[in-house]
C-alpha cells in the first residue's frame, strides 16, 4: 500500500463523503488495522464537526485538547478504532467508537465514569513458559491476569 489515500477508495467503514475531494488522510500503522480504524483528523473534523478544515484540526491536536484512551494524541494520522475512548476535556465530552448496524464506525457519547474504562476483545490465549496465562487483546496489547481470573475468560469474550 502507498502513503496516500484516495477518498473514493477509502474503507467503507469511514463516514466521509466520497466525491467531494480527491484525497483524504490515511492512518499511520498503529494499534488498529487500517480498514478498521479512522484517522484522528477525520474524527474531529468530519464526524464531530468541531472545526471546518484540517489546519484548524491540527492546531487543536497540537495544543493537546484531544485524548484517546486517556493519552493526549497530537498526531493527526493516529488510528482510532473500535472500543477506543475519545475525550475532549474543554467541552467535557467523551465518545466511544463503535460499529453501527451498517458496519460503519460511529461515535457514541458516554459518561465520564464509562470513559475511564476501555472495552477489549480477547483474540487469543497463550500459556507462557512459567505456566502463566497471557491474554492477547484486539488492539495489540497483552495482559497477564491472575490464574483464577484467566481460567474464566474465553477467546472472543
Task: Describe the structure in your own words.
- The protein has 157 residues and is of the alpha+beta class.
- The protein folds into two domains: 5-115, Roll (Structural Genomics Hypothetical 15.5 Kd Protein In mrcA-pckA Intergenic Region, Chain A), CATH 3.10.290.10; 122-152, no CATH class.
- It has four helices and twelve strands.
- Strand 10 (122-127) and strand 11 form a beta hairpin.
- The two termini are 32 Å apart.
- The model has no long low-confidence stretch (mean pLDDT 88).
SSE arrangement, N to C: EEEHHEEEEEEHEEEH
Strand tally is 12
What is the SS-derived class?
alpha+beta
CATH topology of the largest domain: Structural Genomics Hypothetical 15.5 Kd Protein In mrcA-pckA Intergenic Region, Chain A
Chain-wise SSE layout:
Blueprint (H helix, E strand, L loop, with lengths): L4 E2 L16 E2 L12 E3 H8 L6 H9 L4 E2 L2 E2 L6 E3 L3 E4 L4 E7 L5 E5 L2 H4 L6 E6 L5 E5 L4 E2 L3 H6 L5
Antiparallel strand pairs: 1-2, 3-6, 4-5, 4-7, 7-8, 8-9, 10-11, 11-12
Summary keywords:
single chain, 157 residues, alpha+beta, Structural Genomics Hypothetical 15.5 Kd Protein In mrcA-pckA Intergenic Region, Chain A, three-stranded antiparallel β-sheet, 17% helix
Amino acid at each position: 500500500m502507498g502513503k496516500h489515500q484516495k477518498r473514493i477508495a477509502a474503507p467503507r467503514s469511514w463516514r466521509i463523503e466520497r466525491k467531494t475531494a480527491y484525497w483524504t488522510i490515511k492512518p499511520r500503522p498503529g494499534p488498529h488495522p487500517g480498514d478498521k480504524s479512522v484517522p484522528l483528523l477525520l474524527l474531529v473534523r468530519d464526524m464531530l464537526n468541531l472545526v471546518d478544515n484540517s489546519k484548524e484540526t491540527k492546531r487543536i491536536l497540537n495544543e493537546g485538547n484531544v485524548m484517546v484512551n486517556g493519552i493526549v494524541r497530537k498526531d493527526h494520522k493516529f488510528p482510532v478504532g473500535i472500543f477506543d475512548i475519545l475525550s475532549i476535556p474543554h467541552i467535557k465530552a467523551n465518545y466511544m467508537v463503535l460499529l453501527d448496524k451498517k458496519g460503519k464506525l460511529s461515535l457514541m457519547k458516554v459518561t465520564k465514569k464509562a470513559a475511564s474504562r476501555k472495552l477489549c476483545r480477547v483474540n487469543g490465549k497463550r500459556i507462557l513458559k512459567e505456566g502463566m496465562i497471557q491474554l492477547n487483546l484486539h488492539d495489540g496489547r497483552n495482559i497477564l491476569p491472575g490464574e483464577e481470573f484467566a481460567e474464566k475468560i474465553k477467546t472472543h469474550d
